[in-house]
Amino acid sequence: MGCFCAVPEEFYCEVLFLDESKLTLTTQQQGIKYWLDPAKTLAEHKELINTGPPYTLYFGIKFYAEDPCKLKEEITRYQFFLQVKQDILQGRLPCPVNTAAQLGAYVIQSELGDYDPYKHTAGYVSEYRFVPDQKEELEDAIERIHKTLMGQVPAEAEANYLEVAKSLEMYGVDLHPVYGENKSEYFLGLTPIGVVVYKNRKQVGKYFWPRITKVHFKETQFELRVLGKDCNETSFFFEARDKITCKHLWKCCVEHHTFFRMPENESSSLSRKFSKFGSIGYKHRYSGRMSFQMTRDPSIQLPRPDQCIERSRSKTYPKRTQQTGKNTLSLVGIPLLHHLTKAFLLHSFPNSVKPE
Question: Which Gene Ontology terms describe the biological processes this protein takes part in (predicted)?
Fold first, then answer.
């Protein structure tokens, strides 16, 4: 954490990794997730000032690959596997029960290997957590599927997990609550392909990054300008809860657009319009590598040779006993989304596995 300190200073910092171990990148303030900039000190992160000390930071995926199975390095696919597993467990990624059973079986195969009736006695699946509000019926389904996965090594089981998970409707969606006309509630979802708009539990709009010509905010008003098929631009306006939230949405949108956009010489003439992403009085530019650079830069040799991947075991819990019967297993200590996003997920996907 030395890179975040301008001068030596004492502060308490706890980093929580994807494999649930404790030891960079985000912090929570009023339900908003902020990504830390390694080029800045902690004191320069204005959003962090009112949150500590102590500080709790989380290591996680910022930009979700549209197809994580195409990631070239096994270590990267493993980190995506850990992240998506956490997304489902913590309620960020709704998952139907049958899909949860398939995914859970891949997790068990990756961790425990082939089913062995002498080692894997009754109730062995209940020692692990896969979804909020986990029930015994799900564990039984996971056990049945696990028995069919003989021969899959961890890397193969994790790749199969990602192949299923990437098809979930909310995979890789970064949700931001906003208000539309007459204070009606909307959610803007930032994805690898563009911005998705939700209203009344349904998707009402999808705007691809190449068609978005301007992103702007002023005070609490957020503007999304889109070029239609008729080559006419239309502006969509939304209201954020406050100025801080609105600016955060704007910054996230700029970063997602920059990361996922195509190189200028391969995109359409729309690329010349992307300079309009600024807002009066504010400057923000994503300075990291873009998605296409990670796959086409000749200086980046992937996969890197002689990589050693150390997989961590998931946290385990007491095995379900006969006394618990059909009772559910609690997720004590697992943080869920802030109440607005949580409410959206619960009401929008009634047939999915839901948080408590």
Answer: actomyosin structure organization
Helix axes 97-112, 74-89, angle to 10 degrees: 130
What is the CB neighbour count within 10 angstroms for residue 195?
A: 24
User: Which helix (H) or strand (E) element contains residue 95?
Assistant: strand 95-96
Distances (CA, A) of 103 to 2, 109, 248, 347: 38, 10, 33, 23
Comparing C-alpha atoms, which of 347, 291, 345 is closest to residue 175? 345
Domains and CATH numbers, the chain: 11-58 (no CATH), 68-169 (1.20.80.10), 174-280 (2.30.29.30)
pLDDT tens digits, 101-121: 999 999 999 999 999 999 999
Element (DSSP H or E) covering residue 249: helix 243-260
pLDDT tens sequence across 153-212 = 999 999 999 999 999 999 999 999 999 988 899 999 999 999 999 998 789 999 999 899
Rounded to whole angstroms, the Cα distance separating 294 from 162 reads 20
CB 171 within 8 A of CB 162: no
**Structural contact between residues 239 and 176, judged by C-beta atoms closer than 8 angstroms:** no
What one-character DSSP code corresponds to residue 213?
Answer: E
**Cα–Cα distance for residue pair 326/137, rounded to 1 Å:** 8
Cis peptide leading into residue 53 (ω within 30°): yes
User: For residues 166 and 67, what is the distance between their CA atoms, to the nearest angstrom?
Assistant: 7
**Per-residue model confidence as pLDDT tens digits over 310-345:** 898 999 999 987 544 444 454 444 443 444 445 455
DSSP 101-168: HHHHHHHHHHHH-S--TTTS-TTGGGGS--STTB-HHHHHHHHHHHTT-TT--HHHHHHHHHHHHTTS
Q: Look at the block and give the residue holding tokens 């969606």.
A: 173
Q: What are 252's two structure tokens?
A: 């996230």
DSSP strands (E only) in 142-298: 174-179, 185-190, 194-199, 202-208, 212-218, 221-227, 233-239
**Peptide bond before 54: cis, by omega within 30 degrees of 0?**
yes
User: Torsion angle, CA of 94/98/103/104, rounded to 10 degrees?
Assistant: 100
